Amino acid sequence: MIAAGCEVEVAGGRLDRCEMVEHARGADALLGATFLAGRMDREFLKSSSALRIVSKYTIGVDDIDVDAATELGILVTHCPVEANWGGVAEGTLALMLGFAKKLRERDRRVKAGGWRAPELQGLYFGSRDDGYPGLTVGIVGLGRVGRRVADLLAPWRMRVLACDPYVDDRIFAEHGAWKTDLETLLGEADIVTLHCNLTAETRGLMNTETLGRMKPTALLINTARGAVVDLDALCDAIEAGRIEGAALDVLAEEPPPARARVLGLGDKILLSPHMVAANADGGLRAAIAPATDAVLAALRGEVPEHVYNAGVIPHWQARFGNDPLL
C-alpha cells in the first residue's frame, strides 16, 4: 500500500475504544481482522468524515454496525477466502470427532495407566450394511462453511439435514443435504453444527427453547460466532442432561472469565480458543492481499469485490466515485 502512495498507520496490540477512535480519526480506509476493542458502531464510524471503506480480513462482519455504515455511505468488505472457511469446516469435523469418539477421555485413561473401559465407547457415524442407520447431522446455515461440512460428510454415509432460508433449493441438493426447518432439524439431529452469520436474527438462536428441542443424546457444535448461543442456557441444558454436550470454538466473551460456568463442565464440553481456522498456510493470511486490493480499489473510486452491504453502492458512488485518491 505504501508503494501505491498510501500513508499507512499500523495500530498494534489490544487497543481500547478511545485509542481505536484516535487511530481512525481522519482515515480514508480501515483494514483489519476482528476489532476486539469494541464494535464499530455509528459513533465510531463517524470519527472520520473521509472514511470510505472498512475492509475485513475475516468472513464475519459482526463487529461492525453494517446498517450505520450503509446509512453513512461507507463500504464494508469481507474476505471469504477458502483458507479461512475451509479451515473452519475441517475444524468442525475435528471437534465432532474429538467429542463423539471420546479422544480426550481415552488419552487421559491410557496416560494414567488404564486401558479399555465400556464408558470409553464412541459413536459410529455412518450407516452400515448390517442395518445400522448412522447418525444424523443438522447443519444450521448452508453458506460456504456449511456446504463444505456437508461435502466432507458425504463419504461417511451420514444423513445430513440443513436449514437456511436464504439459500436456493438446488444448493441443498448439490451438497447432499435434506432441506428442513430449524425445529425439525433440532428434533432429529444427533449432531447440530452452527454455521450461520451473527445477525439480529441469529443472536441467541440457541436458547432455552431451541436447546430444549434437541435430543438428550445430541451434541451441539459452534464454530460460527459465540453470541449465536445463549451460553447460560447451554450450561443449564448440559447440567440438567437435556443434551449430551457441546464443542465450542467461539464464545460470546473471549477469553472466558476464570470462573465461567462453561469451564466447569468437564468432558461434557470441548473448548477451542477461537482458532478453528488457524492452520499452517491457512487462516487469515490468504485474506491480506484481497483485503488490501479492496482498499486500493475504493481509494481509486472503484467498487471493490466482496462488498457485504451491497445496498450502499449507489450512495457510495455518489460520494466517492468521482473522487479518486490514487
Quick tags:
single chain, 326 residues, Rossmann fold, 3-stranded parallel beta sheet
Would you write up a description of this structure?
The structure is a single chain. The protein has two domains: 100 residues, NAD(P)-binding Rossmann-like Domain (Rossmann fold), CATH 3.40.50.720; 187 residues, NAD(P)-binding Rossmann-like Domain (Rossmann fold, 3-Layer(aba) Sandwich), CATH 3.40.50. It has a seven-stranded parallel β-sheet, with helices on both faces. A three-stranded parallel β-sheet has the order 1-2-3. The N and C termini lie close together (11 Å). Helix 4 packs across helix 6. It is of the alpha/beta class and 326 residues long. 35% of the residues are buried. The chain has twelve helices and ten strands. The protein is elongated.
